[in-house]
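Continuing the batch. This is chain 6 of the set; chains 1 through 5 are on the previous pages. Same settings as before, nothing changed between runs. Recording input and output for traceability.
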Amino acid sequence: MSGKTYRILLRKEPEGGYTAIVPALPGCITYGEDVDEAKQMAKESIELYIESLQAHNEPVPDDQDTLEYSVTI
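Output for chain 6:
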């Protein structure tokens, strides 16, 4: 892998565990029983997603130009 960095969002689920979402890779969503497992599953999902993009000669996006803010309402 070429050292790209990806932001992941972890959402605690009411039934337990965490859903991990990778905003830069549409549809790249996974799940883990705890935070550590969710992070590991996200890493594996990102690697597989990128492998698929490369196999189809598609560009590989990253979070390099992403700005992140939180808004409280």
